Amino acid sequence: MYKILFKRIIDIVLSFCILTVLSPLFLIVFILLSIANNGKAFFFQKRPGKNEKVFKIIKFKSMNDKKGADGKLLSDEHRITKVGQFVRKTSLDEIPQLLNVLKGDMSLIGPRPLLVSYLDLYSPEQKKRHQIRPGITGWAQVNGRNAISWQKKFEYDVWYVENYSFMLDIKIFWLTLLKVLKRADISSSTSVTMDKFTGN
User: Fold this and answer.
1) Cα–Cα nearest to 155, from 182, 189, 129, 118
2) Coil, strand, or helix at residue 59?
3) Which of 77, 112, 122, 187 could form a disulfide with 126 if both were Cys (CB 3.0 to 4.6 A apart)?
4) Under-50 pLDDT residues of the chain
């Protein structure tokens, strides 16, 4: 019953409550990022959801759009703003995804939605991560997030898909809060964001 109905109901109720409580903070972050990013506070990107159905994820924009002499965007390290760095370290950039949860694109807890370009790179086993709605946080996030390898991350994702339950979701929720408070595993060992997945 939890998988069929209650998980979705809990997603809607909790997302609405969290957005309501955090609305003053949401507004402050929106204003600061609008100033830092020339009026662009939000970042939109296509991501695959349940059954690989593509949707637009919404996050607070932590990096500007500065380009080099070749016309290409600079590296993440050179584009992340001071405000954006704080927003990313405190995971405040994830708040707008609560709107995705309310829309039904995402769940509060599940495998993180990755880039559409990765779809052709997954093994049949790794593709199982798309059998349920993606989440704002998940089993892989509380077990290393950006500090673990892609292979390990996918193992955690598939394990969650095959074993998720109400009690497991509660555990992930509280472990996520602890991770956010500690600001742990935000970056990989080589980048301020996760290194790109290039295949198995």
Assistant:
1) 129
2) strand
3) 122
4) 188-191
Whole-number Cα distances in Å, 119 to 16, 26, 116, 164, 196: 31, 32, 6, 23, 13
Please name the residues in contact with 27: beta carbons below 8 A apart, sequence gap of 6 or more.
none
CA atoms of 66 and 48, how far apart (whole Å) = 27
Nearest residue to 174 (alpha-carbon basis) of 108, 114, 88: 108
* Cα 93 from Cα 57, distance rounded (Å): 12
CB count within 10 Å of CB 160 equals 24
The reported pLDDT for the residue numbered 114 is 96
Provide the pLDDT for residue 97: 97
Nearby residues of 101 by Cβ (< 8 Å), 6 or more positions away: 11, 12, 15, 107, 108, 136
